[in-house]
Amino acid sequence: MPSSNERSSSRQALIDAAKSLMIERGSIEVSLSEIAQRSGLNSALVKYYFGGKQGLLLALLEDVLGPSMRQMEGLLTMDVPSVEKLKLHVKGIINIYFRYPFVNRLIHYLFEDQQAGEKVAETISRPLAKTQRSLIEQGIAEGVFKPIDPKLVYFIVLGACDHLFFGTQMLRIAFGVEGVDDDLRRSYTDTLLELLLNGMTVDKPPVERGGPRVRLL
Amino acid sequence: MPSSNERSSSRQALIDAAKSLMIERGSIEVSLSEIAQRSGLNSALVKYYFGGKQGLLLALLEDVLGPSMRQMEGLLTMDVPSVEKLKLHVKGIINIYFRYPFVNRLIHYLFEDQQAGEKVAETISRPLAKTQRSLIEQGIAEGVFKPIDPKLVYFIVLGACDHLFFGTQMLRIAFGVEGVDDDLRRSYTDTLLELLLNGMTVDKPPVERGGPRVRLL
């Protein structure tokens, strides 16, 4: 039996190998033998540590998204205005896609299997949706956001965030743009946030509704 | 040699068989022999009519999107305010995804091949982007839209539109919603349009910027 340190470092080496292969290829089509070769470990260890390839993919997802998920849950309890929370939230999601463009494909791939899908729902989708719901409710309570269905926002925001990264082939072939660089990431984030914030915040021109004017952005 | 009528009806039968199989499965994983069996035709005809499976998939995409693409180009030349054009445009895209939820996967699949990707870029992506650019430019000229990069809007709008349909497994497993029904389609369209229109239109609260107030929606 490997020691607990060896166990932890071999486990991580397999995750890192899968991660770097997916980043290089812009694809989740990576075989166990390629992961073994890259990590310098025997592919049988995938079964030993993760119960199989599906388990490795779930562990990879947790490795990539876990820290941000915990950061996001921390954000919720902080005394920060809802608009700022939404900005941090959207920037956080786009940064994840920027660093790990394969994440969206991986999530949808895992959702094709009921059991893996339930695991992703439990660890990623529902906590993410809960965060969004909570910050939207905060914004509505602050009188800053209009009432809006958080479930619909979830699909709109995630869809908009991932599409630029999911569609890098389209970006290249149809628009002649070679991948998402830092400038494009920044201008995409700014544009999306401007659309969302203008779209979601209460518009109170004093002439039409009276009452104290709320400072929005 | 088949007559021209036979040719056209066999060709269409193969397209229709692929289409109905993809709709039923919510997946583009459909084999040539399944398409042959569903259409009652020999799978060799796929090579005869389309040059191969890739060609059949391109023809299917044209069959599904072609009429809407032409409608959209017609819309551009009509004397309609930009806001109305944007509404029709977004509704049109969502309706396509509603009827053919496999379209997004099919497009991204075809973009994985350089040659097929160029064909999709030429017939779908670039005309769509051109339509959006033109209606955004009209809106800016009308003083209704703020300056915004149409390329970024393209990815935001398409990503938001497709995600609800692309993520039907996620919708089911994570949110307990069994597929997109007509109510959900309508509320998603309304919410997305409200976000976009509020986000894109010029907001001029008189106290802050002075000048005449523009009636937005």
TrEMBL record, chains A, B:
Residues 8-68 form the HTH tetR-type domain. InterPro entries: Homeodomain-like_sf (IPR009057), HTH-type_TetR-like_transc_reg (IPR050109), HTH_TetR (IPR001647), Tet_transcr_reg_TetR-rel_C_sf (IPR036271), TetR_C (IPR011075). One of its GO terms (molecular function) is transcription cis-regulatory region binding. This is TetR family transcriptional regulator. It comes from Sphingomonas crocodyli. Residues 31-50 bind DNA. Keywords: DNA-binding, Transcription, Transcription regulation. PANTHER family: BLR6905 PROTEIN (PTHR30055:SF181), HTH-TYPE TRANSCRIPTIONAL REGULATOR RUTR (PTHR30055).
